[in-house]
Amino acid sequence: PWMRALATLHVSATPDDLPCREQEFESVLGKVEGLLEEGEGGCIYISGVPGTGKTATVHAVVRTLHARAQASEIPPFTFLEVNGLKLTGAREAYAELWRVVSGEEKRVSPGEALRRLVGYFERSGKRGPEAGCFVVLMDELDQLITTKQDVVYNFFNWPTLPSSRLVVLAVANTMDLPERVMAGKVRSRLGMERINFAPYTRDQLKEIVLSRLRGGILQAEELMHPDAVQIAAMRVAGVSGDARRILDISR
Q: CA separation (Å) from 147 to 16, 112, 178, 197?
């Protein structure tokens, strides 16, 4: 039981559900599902300080959508995750997107990928309804900001083109990043949908820990004293509201 508890409290563990983020989950799910059903593109800007469940919520949404697509409840789609911290440069995002859009494993340069993507999305309105749908998670958007801002602009411009069938979910740590960093033309593309994740409260942090401990042989209270959870939740809520922090402390 103890080893299982340590594993479930690890920040990399994927829980079956996300406590205290039900409203945000339903909001993102409803918006993406609606775009897929309509065969349209769109952009959703998701902000919040680190450790507030943004990326985990998007992953949960995508899992739900994949299940519905497999049940033929919504059109099939291809998912791509682009993490700004894992790219050698912001323009590498072009090569990643082209690999998914084209279905080709052979890698092309970012410049060539951009040229092909421009052609693909400019012709999107001429493609039939059988054309593929793509959902792209742009995680750590803060890391993809360039001096020219061309990468961010293109990724938010393409979904607005007719029948692009490209849905972009942009995840960043700051709510006002568009206003602080991006030029007006880029901000205008982000004005469609915004969802902010507030820091977790003390009670929410406590529930996150207890929900992960439930379901084992021992009761959650036998694995970790309620007072210990309460104290940890109070301290983390007072500093950051970061769920990853309380999971580390609990382990």
A: 40, 20, 14, 27
How does strand 166-172 pair with strand 78-83?
unpaired
- Among residues 210, 150, 216, 209, which one has the least CA distance to residue 185? 150
| Whole-number percent of the chain with pLDDT over 70 | 84
Tens digit of each residue's pLDDT (9 = 90 or more) over 48-89: 999 999 999 999 999 999 999 999 999 999 999 999 999 999
Sequence ranges of the domains in the chain: 2-16+200-250, 22-196
**Domain 22-196 maps to which CATH number in 3.50.50.100, 3.90.1150.200, 2.60.15.10, 3.40.50.300?**
3.40.50.300
pTM: 0.88
Higher pLDDT, 180 or 25: 25
Residue 131: HSE in the Cβ half-sphere, 13 Å Cα cutoff? 21
Instruction: Let me know: does 155 contact 169? Beta carbons within 8 Å.
Output: no
